[in-house]
Backbone:
């Protein structure tokens, strides 16, 4: 059964169980400035999960194309993708845990044909602080389901994912209790950050076991469902919305409880063919085979490059088929980035001429079953992408020529050199860096900080001399990116307060979907330190602190205001300084070209999703806003 068959079988199965099929939403939601793209199946249904009656009734299902660019750099491993489909079904005050668990298990085993002995599940361990009990109901339902299938299903209490990495799993264990970091759903993330008035509740995730040999214990610790290794892959999540958070922070049970189920089509299809590599499913394998043919190279020896191309061109095609065109703003810029990253990876494969004309028709054929209501511009999608490919080839040629001229000096290229390539020739930072690595061109150790300084200087020069509160002059900056930019200032302030006052920024990359921040630190942050930093940032956000700017003489900003800055010798004589909080005792005061929000309360909930090494003595934090 290939991916297209699984999609249709899922919808047919849900209809048989009384659900109405609803049309998926576009990837770009009109009138929703809070998000760049539709990132889940439930996102368009949020009003109905909050109580509004749906015109199609209480039992709904769909197959929702989705896109998330937070971890675009992680694409290249066997399971990360930027574009995916969520198979979803919902009960709006109708059936609840037993029916949902039994039906999903039946779909996986009887319809898709998965081996029940390879299915593992997780449940919520409970929370004493808020008086929310362990979800023994879901666990007991799962036990009966597995018993009926002839599969042993012992229950184990794990707690945190970190504890699971140490403990692993024991023979016969199949149902695992985790804390709210793993098995609690709310729009704010963990249980402590659940927004007031929102529906929320425990969830039960379903995993497929690809075998003990897939786990890298030295890198990820012992295997368990919530581990980062390759043995277990989540294929579906059942959210049981049975609580609401009250004004005093406590929780009460809802009279009408909802079920929100989401299953990854690509991942279920990978489980169906027994491959932990989602790029071997029917939606992507034909793309890989064509790349092998064009390049004359094998997938096994060039997995990263071919995975990135297959993923990114899929995403770009879906966006183009919905009428989006590449540009330098918001969604158009994200689309442009997908195309250009794919072309760069094609260069790595030795494909130096246009190739999208051979790849895009394959993608179009793979998605022929998606409704015309969503893919309204199928006929023009290829032309849209070919125009971008041609334009980028010209940009590459101009930028490469200038880069090679700079390299002939024999000196390491600085961030200021790279910024010139971007500012003058439209040759983006990441492309310059990748080309330098590819050609063995040296970069200065602080090239990223230098680039950021040059960018800040340019923005400072371009701003008017007006003073006071930032009034929303976003220019070409999206609203969500501005929120992330301000959150990054709070992150630096929290690190300096809680970890070390000597911490400085060593690089950053902020998009509309996440922030990535590099800083000097002599140790890996502990889970407790990460949590403390995260909590501090959210405390400042909830305090709704004012964010103001003014322009100052450089010496005054540095010596009197003690503004944080990295490149005083490179800054202009008059520069812009942003202050967060009380002016006399600020939370943060930094030299920055902006833009920022005018008060922190609009930022949203800040969540650190990864902390890792970036270079010797440099740590990297990736964070998202929820």
Residues:
């Amino acid at each position: 059964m290939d991916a297209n068959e699984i999609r249709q079988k899922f919808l047919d199965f849900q209809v048989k169980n009384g659900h109405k099929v609803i049309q998926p939403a576009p990837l770009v939601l009109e009138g929703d400035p809070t998000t760049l793209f539709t990132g889940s199946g439930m996102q368009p249904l949020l009003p109905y999960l909050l109580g509004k009656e749906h015109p199609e009734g209480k039992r709904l299902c769909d197959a929702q194309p989705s896109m998330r660019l937070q971890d675009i750099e992680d694409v290249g491993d066997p399971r990360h993708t930027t574009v995916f489909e969520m198979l979803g079904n919902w009960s709006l005050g109708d059936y609840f845990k037993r029916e949902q668990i039994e039906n999903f298990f039946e779909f996986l085993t009887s319809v898709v044909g998965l081996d029940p002995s390879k299915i593992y599940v997780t449940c919520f361990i409970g929370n004493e602080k808020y008086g929310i009990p362990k979800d023994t109901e879901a666990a007991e339902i799962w036990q009966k389901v597995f018993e009926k299938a002839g599969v042993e299903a012992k229950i184990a209490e794990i707690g945190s994912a970190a504890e699971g990495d140490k403990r692993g799993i024991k023979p016969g264990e199949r149902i695992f209790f985790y804390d709210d970091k793993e098995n609690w759903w709310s729009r704010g993330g963990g249980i402590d950050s659940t927004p007031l008035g929102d529906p929320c509740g425990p969830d039960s995730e379903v995993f497929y076991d690809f075998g003990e040999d897939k786990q890298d214990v030295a890198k990820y610790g012992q295997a368990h469902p919530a581990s980062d290794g390759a043995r277990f892959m989540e294929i579906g999540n059942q959210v049981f919305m049975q609580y609401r958070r009250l004004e005093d922070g406590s929780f009460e049970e809802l009279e009408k409880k909802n079920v929100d189920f989401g299953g990854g089509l690509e991942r279920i299809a990978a489980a169906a063919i027994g491959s932990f590599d989602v790029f071997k499913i029917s939606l992507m394998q034909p793309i890989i085979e064509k790349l092998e043919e064009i390049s004359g190279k094998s997938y096994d020896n060039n997995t990263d490059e071919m995975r990135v191309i297959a993923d990114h061109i899929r995403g770009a095609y879906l966006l183009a088929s919905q009428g989006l065109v590449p540009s330098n703003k918001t969604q158009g810029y994200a689309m442009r980035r997908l195309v250009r990253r794919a072309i760069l990876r094609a260069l790595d494969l030795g494909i130096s001429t246009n190739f999208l004309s051979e790849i895009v028709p394959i993608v179009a054929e793979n998605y022929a079953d998606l409704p015309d209501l969503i893919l309204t511009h199928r006929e023009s999608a290829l032309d849209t992408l070919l125009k971008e490919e041609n334009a980028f080839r010209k940009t590459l040629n101009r930028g490469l020529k200038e880069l090679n001229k700079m390299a002939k000096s024999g000196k390491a290229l600085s961030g200021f050199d790279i910024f010139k390539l971007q500012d003058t020739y439209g040759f983006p930072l990441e492309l310059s860096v990748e080309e330098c690595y590819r050609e063995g061109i040296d970069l200065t150790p602080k090239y990223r900080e230098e680039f950021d300084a040059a960018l800040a200087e340019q923005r400072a020069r371009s701003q008017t001399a007006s003073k006071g509160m930032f009034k929303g002059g976003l220019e070409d900056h999206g609203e969500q990116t501005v929120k992330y930019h301000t959150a990054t200032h709070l992150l630096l302030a929290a690190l300096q307060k809680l970890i070390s006052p000597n911490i400085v920024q060593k690089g950053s990359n902020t998009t509309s979907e996440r922030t990535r921040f590099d800083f000097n630190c002599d140790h890996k942050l502990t889970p407790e330190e990460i949590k403390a930093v995260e909590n501090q940032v959210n405390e400042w956000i909830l305090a709704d602190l004012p964010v103001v700017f003014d322009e100052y003489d450089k010496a005054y900003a540095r010596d009197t205001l003690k503004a944080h800055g990295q490149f005083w010798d490179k800054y202009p004589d008059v520069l812009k300084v942003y202050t967060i909080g009380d002016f006399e005792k600020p939370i943060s005061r930094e030299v920055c070209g902006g833009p920022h929000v005018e008060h922190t309360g609009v930022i949203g909930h800040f969540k650190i999703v990864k902390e890792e090494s970036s270079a010797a003595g440099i740590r990297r934090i990736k964070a998202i806003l929820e």
